[in-house]
Amino acid sequence: MKIRSIVSCEKAVSAAISAVLLFGILVSVITLVNVQYIPEWKTSAEQSHMDDVFYDMAGMKNELDILSGYARTEPSTSLSVSVPIKMGGASLPMFSPEKTSGQLTVNEDDFGISIVGTTQGITRNSSSLLLDLGTVSYRSDNNYFVDQKYVYEGGALILAQDSFSLMRLGPQMDIRKTDNSSNISVELNVIDLSGPRRSISSNSIEEINFRTNGTDDLYWDGTLFTDMTMTIQTSYASSWASYLETLADDAGIDASDYSVSFNDTAVVFFLEGNSGDIKINVTKTFFDARLNLLS
User: 10: domain range?
Assistant: First the structure.
């Protein structure tokens, strides 16, 4: 009887030790996955979601570019488009099912353009035509990947990350030499977004509705200017400065004929013609912008 009791006790102790060891291994595996692998998976998933947001915002810009072109040819016809934005994502089924979120805002940032052209003592300026143009922005709320902000302003799509900004897609702006390179043509179609400032935070899909509301022109009767100064009021001046420099260089403009300077709130682009040969053509397309029109 004593021998049987001892054997029974050893079996019980062995089973208990095995259970403890299995539990320890399980805890170690779970800890390893949570500490080492899930952060990497979540970082990759959040980065992938940022790519989705870029595609959505790029699609929005493309839609507005197309509608603005149509609005200029058929100003009496009103067209509208609704653009969905994927606000959240980066969930990992079974391991980490919660989603990240984002904030979508209409008319949050200040953006405007001022153009001044001079020739033979005559000065023309754009006055208030290109001021208060409106913006659309998306700001992420990531847990692992660095937070990013996409801003649509004046027809350009800008990526802001920490204190840096980069123009991912350029506006409808062109600088080129014309008339056998004797003249410089500056053409710009500006997108004007009007509507109440509104913001929404979500991890689902939200929608922005845009409706064309006419066009306007900066009509200067084909005047040739000796120089032009363009001042852009923006929170992302460095990205605009880089874009304008690239635009002038690609047009073959001599470095001595233009300059670009900027600070935290504005960028100034100065262009000088050789003999009063700068043509300026500016149009503006109006859009009514509404966030979640049906809500």
Answer: 2-291
